[in-house]
Amino acid sequence: MLWYAFTALTIWPHYLGYFNEIIGGSKYGYKYLRDSNFNWGKDLPALADYMNKNKSNEVILLDYVRQADPVAYGVHYRNFTSEDFKIPQNKVYAISADVVETVDWAKDREPTAKAGYSIFIYDFTKEATK
Question: What are the CA-CA distances from residue 110 to residues 3, 31, 75, 114 (Å)?
Fold first, then answer.
């Protein structure tokens, strides 16, 4: 019972993103389930929080295929162009974990941050300022 209580505390408030620790926990859940089994738009508020906390007033580039409307959560975005899938620019990119393999440069790159467990954030504006 203590283990379950501990797990519940560590995953809070992202309960829908819970995966058993046997597979590596929620951090690796996207490798096992995709589509509507994994991403329901639940992390769009976390993406908006990231943008607000990091003063990212610019429009981000978003590769997100769910039906939830990111604008409804305060996420100002534009979709990827064909070039964005190949070479990142000096921008902030957000990619739904269930389609991250479709972006050539993101396959082997650690994200700058994550919005919950289902949206990976790659901030190339920060890399440019280092």
Answer: 29, 15, 22, 10
Q: In the chain, how long is the greatest CA-to-CA distance?
A: 50
Distance CA(66)–CA(121), nearest Å, equals 17
Q: Is residue 75 part of a domain?
A: yes
- 5 lies in a domain? no
Low-confidence ranges of the chain (pLDDT < 70): 12-41, 56-57, 126-130
C-alpha 38 chain-centroid distance: 12
- Residue 119's DSSP bridge partners are 96, 115
Per the domain annotation, does 32 fall within a domain?
no
Predicted pLDDT at 34: 60
Domain contains 31: no
Rounded CA-CA distance 8/34 in Å is 22
Domain extent for 110: 39-129
Beta bridge partners of 92: 123
Task: Look at the chain and report how many structural domains it folds into.
Answer: 1
pTM, full prediction: 0.70
